[in-house]
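#structure-requests
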Amino acid sequence: MESTSSWLLVSLAGILIFMWVGFLIIIHNLYAAPIVIPTVATVPVYDPSGKAPSVTITSPRSGELLTSPLTVTGEASGWYFEGSFPVELKDGNGAILAQGQAVAQGDWTTFAPVPFKAGLTFAKPATASGELVLKKDNPSGLNANNAQVSVPVQFNLADRSWRSAPVPTAACLVSGCSGELCSDQNMVSDCIYFPEYACYKTAVCARQRNGKCGWTQTAALKTCLAKAGK
């Protein structure tokens, strides 16, 4: 009888020890194992189709000889900000002949291609070839958001209309959020301030030799810009 009682006590003690070890194992796993939190993948809100911003030029056509005024047309998606994006025309030396805005001819907020139209007026170029540059409007100022399309163009220098083209006489205007733009039109900038903009407060905005409005590159302005850019 006594041996039976001892056996029961030993068995009970073994069961209690087993349960205690099991409890310790559960507690260890609960606090040692990492807690996995389900995550949801995020997709940049841009175009549900996943297509990158693009632009297509329908005019001027390839090989067309250009004269002034020039109308640029095409379609673009993801290039507009407030319904427009910048356009430049350069000669073969890289000198800017004209600048303007390609204006959306429809709802520019859609992800589908939207037609655009831009008008450029310029004096007779010094070279027979040049470049048409379309730039994605980038109000953020981030390099990652920059994009542009450059198209080689040819000018019809033999066209008689160059001789009778009127010389621009409109006054040059200072515009932009920080007064950093010089043009014959009231331009809107992205309002991102750079130190060199302070140099334009004492600079001269006037029509230059190429017939376009611009900042007169005096020695004082060049020095100020060089210092501000450091």
